[in-house]
Amino acid sequence: MKIAIIGGGAIGLLFAHYLSKEHDVTLYVHKQEQAALISGTGLHLEKDGQTYPTALKSRSFQEWQGEEEMTIVAVKQYHLSALMPFFKKGEKARHSFLFLQNGMGHLKWLHQFEEASIYVGTVEHGSLKAAGNHVIHTGTGVTKIALFSGREDFKLNVNDFLKMNDFPFEYFTDYKEMLAEKLLVNAVINPLTAIFQVKNGDIIQNPYYFKIFTMLYEEVSTILQIRDKEKGFLHVQNICKKTAANYSSMYRDLEQGRRTEVDAILGYLLDEARDLHYEAQLTELFYNSIKGKETGAEK
Question: Domain Ketopantoate reductase N-terminal: where (predicted)?
Answer without folding.
Answer: 3-148
